[in-house]
Amino acid sequence: MINLLKRVPLFADLTDAQLEIVSSITSRREYDPHTILFQQGDPGQTFCIVVRGAVKVYTSNKQGQQKILAVFQAGDSFGELALIDGKPRSATAETLEEDTVLLTVTSESFHLLLRAHYDIAKQVMVQLCSRLRATNGHVYDLTFLDAPSRVVKYIVRIAQQQGERRGDKIIIRSAFDPDAMSGLAGVHRNVLEHVIRDLEHQRILFLGASEYSLDISKLFQSPYIS
User: Fold this and answer.
1) Which element (helix H / strand E) includes 150?
2) Which residues of the chain have pLDDT under 50?
3) SS3 at position 8
4) What is the value of pTM for the model shown?
């Protein structure tokens, strides 16, 4: 449990003793695929940590069109803002894989912990500031980077977060999800497919049935990296 909590950005700077305190207020639950954990507009009452599986977070319009904001996997966490301020959820969360397992923390228990342990509360605030800076960076990307550059940037980001380095290549041991990637990069599916075809043609990206790889050396020699 402690090793998992260490991977959660919100608790990244906590000591083992502090993590033991956090661990004491968590609950473990298992979910079927395509389970809606909460919907956009629901009250913010829980903070979630992915133990196994994957969860997508998205917004949708009245026509049912989705914009994927993030896909969370083992060690990732989500829902902390609504947990802290109690305001309605800004997006919907849905499990993607069979037997997805989450650790959850309720709003009530989390606020009690923060009131009782200022040292933990301070570190949580530092991490929230870091999240805000990352969001500002995403807004910058959407404003100033062209669509192909955004696609490549997010492929590289996922490779850095989830991949295994082997020489000049990074191996990501999960199937490439075009819907999730187009949502993360903020591009239409046809734009994403055009970039993917070009990356494959240049032998920068290799897509398999259950994994994909990125050749970093060829990427940095390509026009995508200026």
Assistant:
1) helix 147-162
2) 142
3) coil
4) 0.59
